[in-house]
User: Which sequence fits this backbone?
């Protein structure tokens, strides 16, 4: 898979064309994303500021799965790069008229936007679209099924680097429904690529992937043990729909076993930070005391998410622009 | 309440930071809003024209209550000021995933937009958000519950000044469901602050507030008496949901008692103008002959609403910009 | 009707003010639209590119009928012309509060946008709005009932000219539900105005208009006969709702009689092209082998649609701008 992802995501000089998954991307490229985001995030006076990098470009938000919040962060990032944004809500569009997905895609391509930001309930959807896309079009994965959510993982890495500086000595625990989480999958890949000392996953057997050890992580079923001496605790969001199956007994019982409290956090390092992709289920994944406490960096994650999305979009688009510049007329 | 509103709405030099309510704002500030709107509205060639005042700023429409028309006027005003606009439809967003309102707000703040335009079914919502907002963020109230709708009141004042010039000698009648109307509440405050001779409210006992006299208005239950010698008649919109309770018998009976007709208007001054916040229920609040007649300035109200919203947005944002300019990098 | 359309659509120098229907427009004007689109479509480096022609203008998409795809193409075209776009979704707006259509329109006008792009289920809606619009406002018809869809017809003409060069020698067949199709009506008018040798309509008696011969077309009920020696085959989309009535037996039976296959296409000229307005019902209107085959130019139609919409919008707006420029202040 790695080579295939590399081929699809990178151009022949190893630069980012599409951003679909962490899989197949090297430490240098992830670091370049973080550094580029830093250049947007560290503008003085305010966290991010409008820049003219993508003036004249059209970015289409192609959301097959409703997610106002994620769509808004990409829309904001695009507008801060001076791009124009089209929101294409696929659920109310031609697909409901009986058109096939592939016909919809070909039609959208024919409208020639410069970038698609894709969210889809099916794993592999963004890869599929990138494989079909015209040479001048970039695709950014905004979450596909249970497969990947690479911009979320990169904003998490950005938040960690902001607080901890160097990745090398870190121990990171990921808590909750790792099995069904595209966020966790992308985080584990990113953390290992960036060379942390140890990645742990913590949760009940029913919510941890069978191949966890093959992914280079250590498995814990007990939260107190799992967070011992870690520098970073990443809580996953518990999807309510999991409760409906036999996988989990109740929110209350889940909190008893895997809910993060200040008491349980005492096992972690004194300067440990607590992260969550949002939105939080207070009293399920964690206590409000933790969510609003001094170790929580949850709102910084949201904030850094804009800079990371600006970084990924501008990097992918600049390669396109560079490639096309020879044949383009002056604006 | 006045001092508290002043503290929240004005900076230490008395300039507008948030625009939440007329309450606590002085005549000078209301006049400054009207004058600023005049500068946008009186551009030659067309009523308003795009200006670069808010280029690079991000304005988020945060509508917890659906209102396409009001949202559109704010969106238009923002775009005519060259700002970028994000429409955040809260009903389909994270709150439906179990997130608390406060978490949603904190998340939106973390995305660092420069201004929130807030519409909410609950009184006080815009104040609450302004109280929570980061120092660099302005909040404009686009209607909160039965409390306030200050931009509507200011566009009404603008319309009155356009036609009557001086506020001092005017008698103004507000007709209808004053009790439940955020528009009426804001109008009464603005008219009294701008120093009109007399404000009257006209309606059945069940639809007039008990504290009407304390608000400095004269109460009439008879329309013919109430409009005698007035310069301005402001009709309120009758909410159909009021019909469901015992407050009102039927639309037909309401029109018999409080519907405005040309005949009833004969009691008013010959040059009286007729206003309505829209949308009109023809044959309920007024005859079509009145709505489309020579005294009606209803469409001018809509038109002036863009200029008023441009004025409020640019005033609140320029204070922000001035405050932040010392620490900001050049664009 | 022609003179009336001419009066409404053209200014006193014969230039486009509104674009409502092909009816009443001469060959020169249609050719000017095609040439203007060509200037956008033939920019080197990419099919269309952002140009500053409509910077500072506000275009409102006024869609009374849901059509994400058509709305998106107009939004794209407007943004590529550097205009600002307001999407006004009428179904959720004030009309649901009991406001009349005329009041809604007057209100939208009072917000002074520069152009309305109108889609409505009722024939004549765009004409009605253009007749009511303020002097400074242009209206573009994005489809009204079963009456007209002139931008679709013009993008079809553009596609034909790209492939065939000269219209004069061409034979064109339109296949399917011509009776209910606003697309077909506009295509027939455009083809005849541009002077093709022959226009044919092909379909069952129940789906062909009684006045077909009066429209200057030849009628065929047999597909094999109808496509003989034609240069262009235009397939219409079959509306599923037609199946519900007695007009048509079943999708399967329709395909047996009027579905386009490679075999049936052998009767057409060897270099014939196949068109469809999209979205395609594969296996109903045509075989996938045809839709994806070498004669299909269906995706080019979508692509050219952006350029055509840019052409129509900029032509109509430039007349406005020229007319208004004497009284306008510098930006």
Assistant:
């Amino acid at each position: 898979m790695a080579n295939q992802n590399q081929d699809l995501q990178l151009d022949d000089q190893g630069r980012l064309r599409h951003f679909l998954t962490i899989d197949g991307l090297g430490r240098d490229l992830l670091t370049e994303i973080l550094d580029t985001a830093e250049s947007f995030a560290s503008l003085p006076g305010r966290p991010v500021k409008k820049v003219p990098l993508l003036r004249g470009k059209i970015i289409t938000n192609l959301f097959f799965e409703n997610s106002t919040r994620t769509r808004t962060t990409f829309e904001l990032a695009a507008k801060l790069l001076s791009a124009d944004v089209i929101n294409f809500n696929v659920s109310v569009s031609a697909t409901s008229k009986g058109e096939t997905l592939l016909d919809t895609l070909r039609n959208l391509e024919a409208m020639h936007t410069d970038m698609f930001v894709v969210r889809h309930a099916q794993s592999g959807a963004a890869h599929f679209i990138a494989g079909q896309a015209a040479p001048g079009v970039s695709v950014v994965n905004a979450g596909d099924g249970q497969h990947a959510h690479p911009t979320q993982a990169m904003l998490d890495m950005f938040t960690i680097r902001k607080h901890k500086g160097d990745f090398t000595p870190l121990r990171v625990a990921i808590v909750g429904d790792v099995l069904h989480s595209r966020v966790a999958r992308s985080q584990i890949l990113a953390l290992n690529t960036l060379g942390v000392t140890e990645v742990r996953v913590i949760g009940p057997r029913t919510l941890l992937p069978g191949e966890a050890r093959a992914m280079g992580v250590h498995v814990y079923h007990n939260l107190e043990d799992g967070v011992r001496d870690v520098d970073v605790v990443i809580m996953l969001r518990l999807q309510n729909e999991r409760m409906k199956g036999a996988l989990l007994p109740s929110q209350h019982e889940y909190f008893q076993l895997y809910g993060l409290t200040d008491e349980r956090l005492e096992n972690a390092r004194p300067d440990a930070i607590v992260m969550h992709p949002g939105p939080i289920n207070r009293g399920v994944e964690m206590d409000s005391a933790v969510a609003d406490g001094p170790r929580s960096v949850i709102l910084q994650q949201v904030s850094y998410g804009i800079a990371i999305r600006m970084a990924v979009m501008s990097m992918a688009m600049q390669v396109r622009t560079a490639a096309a510049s020879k044949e383009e007329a002056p604006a």
Observations:
- The first strand of chain A starts at residue 58 and ends at 63.
